[in-house]
Design a protein that fits this description.
The protein has 302 residues and is an alpha+beta fold. It has helices spanning 2-17, 112-121, 143-154, 161-175, 187-202, 210-216, 221-232, 236-247; strands at residues 24-32, 35-42, 53-54, 58-66, 68-72, 75-79, 84-87, 92-96, 103-110, 135-136, 260-261, 267-268, 272-273, 300-301. It is globular.
């Protein structure tokens, strides 16, 4: 994820040097019959006024770096790395950067007929109605797909964008049955949590304690923990672990979900090995010992 953040920082520096207003730059990576994938870099910040846009297709935007506030008829929320922005054709939306500059997303656009047929094939009975949520938080079930999109963004892996787009759409529709939106919080709460999220993303390997993060946010430990989970959908501890997992994306293989091998096993304090897997907890567990293999053999995402 470091390379992704570096490229975003470069775009932000260029904007500041030339005194330009914030803007969005999409770079088409691949397209096919009914689908398009683009690497989208936004350099907007608090000084730029949000404006209304409109989706002309179904969209899933994987947030790779930065944060932003998203509003649509489906709801509102703070989007952080690892989360998905969802949109239906004809829906208006706004993306704002009230508390920080810039973001980078991998956007998957689907023509209505293509998407609705894909939903039917995936067994989603409510398919014709499209998404019912404005976004999905950074869920562990999405981690392999988010990591793979990040690897593709850096060009370090030959990605089948069509395959990834279909799996991502099916997973997003299947996970969209639960209402993830929460009641709105005061804007200063969003600002404080946004600062904490960006601190974690800048230095995921640092010793980031709950005390230190809460102190920087000027909140008590209790209120910081509840507000962070309220806005991001995960606890600070879970977010740090997933940020570290995204750092490991360069080690990903060509497989999604079950059996996706991490070639390098990252160890955490206490000898625990982080495994973020679909359907399994992200809390640490020692790597399974296998006959004829060292205890530090690579983990697997299942």
């Amino acid at each position: 994820m470091a390379k992704i953040a570096v490229e975003l920082d470069r775009a932000l520096s260029h904007r500041r040097e030339h005194g330009e207003p914030g803007h969005t730059t999409p770079r088409i990576l691949a397209r096919g019959n009914g689908w398009t994938v683009a690497d989208v870099v936004c350099t907007a910040g608090p000084q730029d006024r949000p404006f209304e846009e409109r989706h002309d297709r179904y969209v899933i935007a994987v947030v790779l770096a930065g944060t932003f506030q998203h509003r649509s008829p489906l709801g509102r929320g703070l989007l952080t790395p690892g989360s998905l922005m969802l949109g239906n054709p004809g829906h208006s939306f706004q993306c704002g950067h009230e508390h920080g500059e810039g973001d980078r997303c991998m956007s998957f656009w689907y023509e209505p007929q293509y998407f609705e047929q894909l939903a039917v094939d995936a067994g989603v009975r409510r398919a014709p109605k499209g998404f019912r949520l404005s976004h999905l938080p950074a869920l562990r079930q999405l981690s392999p797909l988010v990591a793979h999109a990040g690897v593709g963004a850096t060009g370090s892996l030959d990605v089948s964008w069509e395959e990834l787009g279909e799996i991502l759409a099916a997973r997003a529709m299947q996970l969209g049955g639960e209402r993830w939106e929460r009641p709105a919080l005061p804007s200063n709460a969003e600002a404080r949590i946004t600062g904490a999220v960006r601190t974690i993303d800048r230095q995921p390997e640092a010793e980031l304690t709950l005390d230190a993060l809460a102190r920087d946010a000027r909140l008590s430990r209790y209120h910081f923990l509840r507000t962070f989970a309220h806005l991001t959908g995960v606890t600070p501890h879970q977010y740090v672990r997933r940020a570290r997992l995204r750092e490991d994306q360069k080690c990903g293989s060509n497989r999604y979900g079950n059996g996706w091998t991490i070639r390098r096993c990252r160890r955490f304090p206490g000898g625990r090995c982080h495994r973020s897997v679909s359907g399994r907890p992200t809390s640490g567990a020692r790597p399974r010992r296998r006959s004829g293999r060292a205890a530090a053999s690579p983990c697997r995402w299942r």
